[in-house]
Amino acid sequence: MLKIVNTEWKLFLREPSMVVFAVLFPAILLSVLGAIPALRTPDPNFDNQRFIDAYMSSLVVVTLAFLGLNKLPTTVATYREKGVLRRFSTTPVHPARLLVAQVLVNVIAGVLSVVLLMVVGRVVFDIDLPHHPLGFVVTFLLGMLSLSAIGLLVAAWAPNARAAGGWATVVFMLVMFFGGVYLPRFLLPDFLNTIGEYLPPGVEALQDSWLGAAPDPVHLGVLALVTVAAGTVAAKSFRWE
């Protein structure tokens, strides 16, 4: 298992675009936004906090969405299309381990991205670290697992790698929209914000735990439910060849 994870990690590093967008881009975007003086000024729209403080949770959503919905479905569908999963099934190593390795690589990359984001935010812009660390870690892991389960579901249902990429892109755009990446959440109507609170990867729970409150157990429960439901359906409908 460790050998598979190590190999998948090396393959991930050989994809410059994914490394840039999933690991480096959130910190780069924070640097660009933080260079704008108005976004470093306390604003009543953010409870007298700065825009860059309130936007940190959306930057985490960027990482989770790229890894769970861009990288995972396309990679898994490509492996199936090229016969990699079928060949694995003829060995003592079950191909399911390859899927587990994909999720573990996503978690590792996600952790690196968030750590880099925290370092840049703290050192350059004096942004506080998450005030509720345990709640943030739990939400981060559930957010990653829920989006990974959805990504595997897309890979299970898509007929080929191209279709998997297209389907996943639609879900990716919805996650980014409701996660406040395209538009700050205070600009969205209340009903859209309410929907976004309960959708993976849990932007409201990420923001609460970052700014000091414990995440709502209902939000965490929804993430866990999506993980179990999507993961179960993906496992039952997945085609190895």
From TrEMBL:
Keywords, sorted A to Z: Antibiotic resistance, Cell membrane, Membrane, Transmembrane, Transmembrane helix, Transport
Entry keyword annotation includes Nucleotide-binding: no
GO biological process: response to antibiotic
Organism superkingdom: Bacteria
Domain ABC transmembrane type-2: 17-241
Membrane-protein topology: Multi-pass membrane protein
GO terms for cellular component: ATP-binding cassette (ABC) transporter complex
Residues spanning the membrane: 20-39, 51-69, 99-125, 137-158, 164-183
Subcellular location(s) of the protein: Cell membrane; Membrane
Pfam families referenced in this protein's UniProt entry, alphabetically: ABC2_membrane (PF01061)
Annotated GO MF terms: ABC-type transporter activity
Keyword match Membrane: yes
Family statement drawn from the similarity comment of this UniProt entry: Belongs to the ABC-2 integral membrane protein family.
PANTHER family, sorted: DOXORUBICIN RESISTANCE ABC TRANSPORTER PERMEASE PROTEIN DRRC-RELATED (PTHR43027), TRANSPORT PERMEASE PROTEIN (PTHR43027:SF2)
Name of the protein in question: Transport permease protein
